[in-house]
């Protein structure tokens, strides 16, 4: 196993598969009356969140607690962090507290990589800037595998603001590792220069892609991007790249619709589509706990 | 005044000879030359170069004395073989008045480790809105000839035109930090495959190239001199090649780090590799080396940019851009540009090569001419002011940080072994460095 989970690229095929298989076992715990395993008793997991994300923080917190770890929530608000303490000083504090794992969410790309140089414990990237969000990619892969049986050869369209999306970066890397075929669909302004080197295809035309996919993953698109001329208006964006009812109807029968949340209903996805049987949005949340349990278990379980 | 005789020195790599320095001037160059009472310096096999001249140094004083002072930066310069440095204007207060440039000039003179030639700001407060009193700075004791808003681009085309025109009255030159700010909002690194992968906002090559293209045309239109700071892209090289072929009076500099390092180093997210303009690609590095060899890029300038630990030991996007350069510039240039045969095979193999004369031209003579520093950039010869440096071409030095004389530690070369060691530097006939150690 690996020491840190900073990028989906840290996972080779066998390790990624091990995480998903372990998550499957962890999911059975959720069905029990006592939803707890003693595995990480006496271990300390710190949630270090520089950005508000109740959803992700709670998911990691529940995961750690189900493994009987002690959880410290070190949120940026109201702590020394918001008083301008440097990441390095915070890292030294966490080190002194004996953190076995630090789960970090940060608005700066690469902050988890910096942190990993300053603490002895494992660092888990829970989303860094516009870089990566590897546990989101793992839970997405887990969800696809649960619904569709396999990832090998799966045709996945990831639609929306790829440029600013850490979810897209992690998903492209992980899905390629696991043998899926990814197509990014986006207006050209919201694709990074250099995307050509990524292990995926690129399209500007959602309608040309839709009929031929097993999974369509809609990314959150902030309306404010139009102020920077990434697109002319929210309405035009929704018309060209939104998953509305008519488009959803043209998906293959078995295809699923995913969204990492939080959704802009009416922007990238129509409410009727988000609430349809194809949508996996609620189970993605549940799967998040199982996958994060697996990650913490595999990072910490092997160490004494 | 004191006399020195440097024995066995090889001027620009030529045969061994002896150099006598008396009263601040090279008195004699000949095997066996000496002077009564002269201090003998063993320079056996060392290469004598005219003292290096840096067109682009950030000395941080006044304002950020925690990062560097005129004195500490001058000491780093001397140890790097420099006898003159041009101090950039982005201090606090900004060097946009005769008072501030005279202050920096005097601090340099008092430190006595290198000639410190202040650069004046083009616009008041570097704000890019109205011209600073360029004439007053030119007429001051600091005799400013280079003007730059470095750190910022003079992006308003009309203001740039006026600046280029105005300084013609006193043979000034505008040194442009070429960066179209509307194309680099929030930029963190070169825009390309690495920025895409690392999720860092890109700094596109076109933001530099568009300004250079505009400014060479402006310089042609008004018949002015233009200097381009830290050229970093292959595209910029092509525009400069075109402009020079057309007879436009443009000169350009490249930094040592753009000759050696690439954007792949950002993979670590260690901000010691964050710099503006950013590290670019292998193809850009190759184009810059070729351009420096063939003269399209005129000079090497360090863009020595000291930053405190707090400003570098943090998240990449929060870190300030810039790298130390004065003490490593010559070794990096020897490593990347000097014919390896002149270094006992110690440099990188590659097509673009200089000899020692070529190094002296690009690191001393030509920058001295651009800056208008008459006493610098002259090969050691009788009657010439004794500004020179002695380099051991056989030495290999591993950069470890301990040797750094700057107040800051942000070198991107830590752990690298580079060829060449500055053994001695003479400023106006007095040693600022002997045996690799600063003399004050
Ligand atoms: Zn600059």
UniProtKB/TrEMBL annotation, chain A:
Keywords: Pyrimidine biosynthesis, Transferase. Residues 152-299 form the Aspartate/ornithine carbamoyltransferase Asp/Orn-binding domain. Its EC number is 2.1.3.2. It comes from the Bacteria. Catalyzes the condensation of carbamoyl phosphate and aspartate to form carbamoyl aspartate and inorganic phosphate, the committed step in the de novo pyrimidine nucleotide biosynthesis pathway. HAMAP family: Asp_carb_tr. This is Aspartate carbamoyltransferase. It comes from Actinocatenispora comari. The lineage of its organism: Bacteria, Bacillati, Actinomycetota, Actinomycetes, Micromonosporales.
From TrEMBL, chain B:
It catalyses: (S)-dihydroorotate + H2O = N-carbamoyl-L-aspartate + H(+). Transmembrane segments: none annotated. GO terms for cellular component: cytoplasm. Substrate binds at residues 58-60, 90, 276, 307, 321-322. Zn(2+) 1 binds at residues 56, 58, 150, 303. It is an enzyme of class 3 (hydrolase). Keywords: Hydrolase, Metal-binding, Pyrimidine biosynthesis, Zinc. PROSITE patterns: DIHYDROOROTASE_2 (PS00483). NCBIfam families: PRK09357.1-1 (NF006836), pyrC_multi (TIGR00857). Belongs to the metallo-dependent hydrolases superfamily. DHOase family. Class I DHOase subfamily. This is Dihydroorotase. The gene is pyrC.
